[in-house]
Amino acid sequence: MAALVVIVISIGVLISLDLLSSGGVPNPGPGSGSGSALDPEVLAAAERFATATCPPGPTTTLALVTDLAGSMRLDTEVPIPGLSSMTSTADGTLFLGERTGSILRLGPTSATPRLFLDLSADTSTVTDQGLLGITVGPDSERLYVLRTDRRGDLVLTSHPVGPNSNPGGVVELLRIPEPSPLHNGGGLAFGPDGLLYVGVGDGGPLGDPYGHGADPADLLGAVLRLDPGRTGPEIWATGLRNPFRLAAGPDGDIWITDVGSNCFEEVDLLSPEQTGANLGWSRFEGFRPFLPAALPDGRTPRDAADGLEPPLAVYAHDRDRCAVMGGTVYGGDLFPELRGSLIVADFCTGELMAVSSDGAIRLLPVRAGSPVQVTTGPDDEIWIVDIATGLQRLGSSR
Known about the structure:
- This protein has 1 helix and 30 strands.
- The protein is mostly beta strands and about 400 residues long.
- The strands form 8 sheets. It has a 5-stranded mixed sheet, with no helix packed on it. Strands 13-14-15-16-20 form a 5-stranded mixed sheet, with no helix packed on it. It has a 4-stranded antiparallel sheet with strand order 4-30-29-28, with no helix packed on it.
- It is globular and about 55 Å long.
- The protein starts with 5 loop residues before the first strand and ends with a strand.
- Mean pLDDT is about 85; it is low at about 1-35 and about 295-305.
């Protein structure tokens, strides 16, 4: 059985992100949801597809940005291992999510972050699970938190953050039972339309044997869209494996970084009007077919290739690359060459990349350690959440 991607950081937290889609169906154990029973032959077939040798396939060429060589550096801003996500408010306040379920607050004039919210007693950290993503609303009055609770359910809640807000004013917006502790998603982004986009993984196990990603009516394996002031999410896009990060561009388009199986990583770009778009998982991984015509139980993928939305960009698991970590559309001043591009990182190599709207991928001349999020800081520059070392900022050496 191939090994999972595991990182033991200095404070003793075991991180197991399944980002290489390793072999073996994990024992769900405590903190995982429940799924209906499947025939063992179906599970074995799905795992076999998910761990097979990667065939040659079309990918996007990665070109090094040579004119930025020597001009970039990473500065550590908050040296706290175990961070999984970051967001900021209009006044420059940072909220830092820890995978174990705590959220720290760092004011614009503060030197040390303080505990803002502790959800650790009801947060599962089995395998991929934990506090997955956070974001603030457009008015900076509420904090939105996506995590897995002790039952293994994926839960989205909102919490007041204003100085005069009621600490008890917590609202649960979404709850989805998970069939396994794998592929829980994590992407959160508000579009210019004021709606919240939520990335939800297929729920695992390997190879999506339940067919969640291929089911256009399933909340799993999808990007959901909702108005936090109303109830009930809309399934906005389907055919996703693990949309771990989302980003909204200034034009309203939504960028999706979808962590792949064992061969390819994918970046997608959709306009808000493309409701119902199917991005192809598990019929395809990146540009290449993933599932055969039928699984052993006779079930066939629901989607024909001509009914799918192709990826914007794809890169392969070569040179130790393993998982795309999104992502923010750059609009800062330090690197005008990158404006309008989505800045992402690879979890295993730490490489930073710029993905343009024409699908080109440029490698930036700097590497992080174990990045799990690339985001925009209060200064409109690039900030990186590194789960092994803490919060970093991409600075200029020009």
